[in-house]
């Protein structure tokens, strides 16, 4: 009974309806602003995680893959690559082929007879990724090269081909 009395008193007050309307409108506006901010936040974080999930950069290849030898398989698996083939080459050494289905990228790792990685071929599906991996420069040591080889085909698709070559130069023995 008391609730009905209070409500009827508030409704009879002429300014209350305008106040209530404004309060409801402000709530809807706040909700819309929050919804926009949440969508922007989702877009930013999704873009951030997708770009950080991009498989490999030049630094990853030099520092993670080439320097880790046998441990490179687990690193590549963490990056989304799956081993398609690994076996001996006719000229000696070993060839391993990896494919990342999510990002449509190929990686061919060439090892010498001693098991040291000497060259990595990286096939990228877009010109943008190809150019990005060329612009990210590392101070190259003697025997290290990054060669952009342009377009190539793999399984009927066009890819952009980069090779990372690493030939450790042996230092001559000191003369006494």
From TrEMBL:
The keyword Transmembrane helix applies. Keywords: Membrane, Transmembrane, Transmembrane helix. The chain crosses the membrane at residues 37-56. This is Uncharacterized protein. It comes from Chryseobacterium joostei.
